[in-house]
Amino acid sequence: MEPDAEFEEWAKYKEKEEMDKDEDLYGFWFEEVCRLPKERMNRIQKIIEEGEGPSFGLISLASMMSEGKIPVVLTPNFDDLLYDAFYLFLDETPLKINHDALAPQFRLTGERPTIIKLHGDYLYRNIKNTGEEREHLEDNIEEALEKTLEEYGLVVVGYGGRDDSIMNVLKKAHNEDFGFFWCVFAENEDVMDKLSEKTKKVLNNKENAYIVPIDGSEQLFNTLAEELGVNPPTGEEIRETAEYRAKKLERKLGKRIEESSGEEKEALKEFKSKSKFKMLEKGHEKLRDRDFEGAVDTFTRVIKLDSNYAPAYNDRGSSLFSMGKYEEAIDDYDKAIELDPDYAPSYANRGLAYSRIGKYEKALEDYNKAIDIDPRNMKAYKNRAELYLFLEKFDESLKDSQKVLESSDEKKDTAIGLMLSIIAKKMLGEEVEENEEEYREICEKDFKTNWSFEELDSWLKSVNLDADKRGYLEEIVNLLREHIEGN
């Protein structure tokens, strides 16, 4: 028998032989597997840290709490996921009452949303896991629970009702003005079969107690939020909050650098430099994700950190280019070149921007300059080969295409070089069979390219070709087009 199967068989035996029908499996297994409080704390911490953070349902719950629709949440959970939902998505800090809070500090009628952690927090050793530990709540937590039940109704979600600590308080709670709503996820099972004997006794002794079948906590929280007219924050709102925080931090850092001296000043400058490169990489991620506006904002922040850093202007120019703002992109490329006259990428990029607005001679000058500075600049060779098609310099286009093929070590660059070679040879009336065979073979493989076809499409529409040649070249171009990122 496999080890996992052996464990399952043993677990079933232990549960059957050593547990009564209404005992809490959770507390039983914690006591069996992690006998020491430190072991339990470490195990829970590991599980939480490997998780994915707050679910969307918890974000909806936090949003309802933020708007005063749900003033208090009582939770036996040890994680901080609900608290994290406030911090990460609502820019708000709820009141969190834990084992170390003093009862007189509880102000449950205040405007601040409140989270009461009934069994403690995974960050502390005195969390209550085992059945024995959960027989009683801390005095202060029990008082908080009693106060809450006196002032508000109760909706129970995701709680089995098998430990004495909470159920003893619920038994004696007086709540004549508000209802008890016990939500049960039962799928195709009888709802009553899902309730513990302790839960049935509590509900049977209350006139205003109701059992509510649900499809799960996520569905419940999202449905409640919709019914109450509460909308979780949008991605744009969260981005604005993050931008505000980032700019505030940058201002404080800049001010401190101005006020400091000696080793502190040098250390802060080094930190600022590291921040710049981290931010630059974040901008590149946004570019790859096609979040061009976000990339522009990020590179602008880099420029504010270091206004003499040419790559930041170049990258912001590329982001603007991708948004179709060619003149603004050229302005940024100009600034990058002003700061670093030997920065080849900005010449290659500005050349493409000039080509996009029909200034072909200026584009050619920039491609030439980029190649003079960096003879290995593949982008400049590819773009110049394409530009030569517009200028009807097919021999020159073929030379640059061959240069791409000589230097290429990636399928996407080889494919572009072969495509441009085939077009140039076809326009020169040369044989293309060998290049075409290799090109078709590569295009059958899996790779992605961010090559823009706007220039080639424009050229194919304007060039004077017979129907057969035009159809052939369009087919060749479309073979590579199938590999555009996002297809």
TrEMBL record:
SMART domains: TPR. Pfam families: SIR2_2, TPR_11. It comes from the Archaea. SUPFAM superfamilies: DHS-like NAD/FAD-binding domain, TPR-like. The keyword Transmembrane does not apply. InterPro entries: DHS-like_NAD/FAD-binding_dom, TPR-like_helical_dom_sf, TPR_rpt, Ycf3. TPR repeats lie at residues 310-343, 344-377. The keyword Repeat applies. Keywords: Repeat, TPR repeat. PANTHER family: TETRATRICOPEPTIDE REPEAT PROTEIN 6 (PTHR44858), UDP-N-ACETYLGLUCOSAMINE--PEPTIDE N-ACETYLGLUCOSAMINYLTRANSFERASE SPINDLY-RELATED (PTHR44858:SF1). This is Uncharacterized protein. It comes from candidate division MSBL1 archaeon SCGC-AAA259I09.
